[in-house]
Amino acid sequence: MTATTKKVVIIGGSFSAILAVKILVGSKKTNNINLDISVVSPSDKAYFVIATPRLLFESEKVDDTLYDLETTIKKYAKGTNHSTTYIKASAVDVDLGKQVVSLSSGSKLNYDNLIVASGNRSEHPAFKLGNKTDASYTIESGKELAKSIRSAKSIAVIGGGSTGVELAGEIAYVYGQKKNIKLYTGSSQPLPSLSKSVGNKATKQLQDLNVEVINNRRAKNITKTSIEFNDGSVEKFDLVIPAFKYTPNSEFLPKDVLDKNGYVVTDKYFRLENYHNVIAVGDVISMGVKSLVDLMYFQKAGLENVINYEVFENSSTKLKEYKQPGIMLVVPISKKGGVGSVYGWSLPNFAVSFLKSKDYMISKSADSLS
Asked: What range(s) does the FAD/NAD(P)-binding domain occupy (predicted)?
């Protein structure tokens, strides 16, 4: 049988995009289909952003968390019948009917299959890669933030999720006795998705590090040095750090395939409802819990099957429905440990230390990015 070639475009250059490349070029059931894969990302480096709260204070380790994207995708394609090309650009438009991706460079890419793996971005650019900027911008933003933290005497961290709690803990571990540090959770406790007992444990650990934890006050307007709350009151600080808002990198897609928050709506098999040749995965999709654990242990199996079915046209492949896992969260609160929960079971401090707080998984970053 004569081999055919299909064009696959992947939008994104981090965890989910690299996972998609690995699955595509590693498939054993190619159905005599060779792939011409283009990976589109404004960043030519994949960056282990998970470690940002620690890297703010240990910048000498940043180089250990950066991986050349072109080298990575070519390494996985070597020895296969597939080819990979890295394109440094942003996607600005997708015509789903004509199957064309328009790039910030002005060029256009035709595709047979499209994989949207563009992730989401944070309010503060230090915590996530942006949709139009490269890793160097994120890293420099982190350096500027670290500099501001060093010089500030009063610091407010806004957000009681994992990023806010981790950041407040890291700041306090380094500067706790020298600075006035407040964490505004915006909820009834830190880590509101977890049990009250875990929230209380997090509060105690933060307080032991000299962090003042303030619940049930929601910010209305935020500047670099002030917070206006919903009740109209205003508090001023030397530094205010937003650590609570994420925006999906999906502006290039038609609005009718996005939910009200801009996340991509898919079926249970990661396909767009009316365009099954388009797959979306990772933090950009509306379902899921927006974590590396979810991607690698729950989304991955479904992604493998739908790629075999849609890209390699193996109609005998049984699609695997994605089922959102229970809450699994490991939150370091400094090098001393932290809190966590797996399916409702609270993790002991030593387990959090072993899993993440010891080195923020920097030593294992290559597993997912290289």
From this structure: 6-289
